[in-house]
Amino acid sequence: MDSQKPVHTIVLDTGAIIRNHPTVSTLLAQSEQIITVPAIITEIRDAATRTRVETQLMPFLTIRSPNPASIKFVTDFARKTGDLDVLSKPDIQIVALAYELECERNVKEEVKPEEKDEAKQDDAAEIKQEETTEAVPEQTSADAVQQISEDLAQTKIEEVENTASEEPHQEKDSAGSTESIQNVQSVLQVATLTTDFAMQNVLLQINLNLLSPTMQRVKHLKTYILRCHACFCTTKEMSKQFCPRCGSPTLTRVACSTTSNGEFKLHLKKNMQWNTRGDRFSIPKPVHGSANGRVQGGGKGHWGNDLILAEDQKEFTRHHEAEKRRKERDLMDEDYLPSILTGDRNSRAGGRMKVGGGRNVNSRKR
Questions:
Q1: Nearest to 77 by CA among 91, 63, 64, 65
Q2: Rounded to a whole number, what is the distance in angstroms from the first to the last CA of the chain?
Q3: Which superkingdom does the taxonomy of this entry point to (predicted)?
Q4: Which of 1, 84, 116, 228 could bridge across to 233 with cysteines, CB 3.0–4.6 Å?
Q5: Is 103 annotated as a binding residue?
Q6: Is 0.85 topped by the overall pTM?
């Protein structure tokens, strides 16, 4: 069925739902279907926003999860662009769902068996024609010259007749092609509504359609790597928190590009100042706590306990191994229950571990 609306399917992100911009009536007027992933609904914790979503948006919203193949494709693509560690799990699922729907809506038609048989017959006819041309006996030079002159005369007459007859057909074909192009461009099959710049960067590089409620979108598509601010070492492993050369937690996310000559360039921020938070004040002395856990060591608010200062600390290694096991968990396993079913809202698994002392809690706030 031909749709008269600008977009057939809109994939919603959390930002548009929380801000309520555009409104539900606008989304329904501009699209045939509104769809999102289950993790987006769990991210809404405000009582007023959740009530509005359940009463106004949920009757028109379709909940769908992307398949593992789409998630793997988006994860590998985001790893190449350097946006994987910036994107959360719901963000990856949103991009994967948009990619999956785009593939479903714009799937190419398979060749019919009749067309295959016609192609085989054409190939057989061409082979027979080649065999007959090889079997033609050789002609003398005088006969060949006479035949060529006759063919040239006939081709001149045919060209004059064909040009006059083919002009209206060409005009019709060109008019039909322009109309079809306009019809294709007038309706977007799938578009993603998000304000996250990292998601926009991945969506545009995959060549997916993008909608922004605030009319703000990325101007330049970028690829990122990590660069050490202390020793200027670069690495493409975006999951690292410590420099592989000097071991300092001074890795920054930097945009990079490759020129047509194969030259690798880094695009650094002008007048960049390193944040010295956590380095201006000395860390507190280690103070032991009690065995039963009632008394915990450290400074005010237990500041200074379990500080991560190096990559080979057992706390950092233990956290890294637990994070690796969590990522390897199969989401399609029947024994695995996500937080949406268990009701767990306090677990902060999946975040990066805090490195360094941070801001001194005993210093003045203003």
A1: 91
A2: 62
A3: Eukaryota
A4: 228
A5: no
A6: no
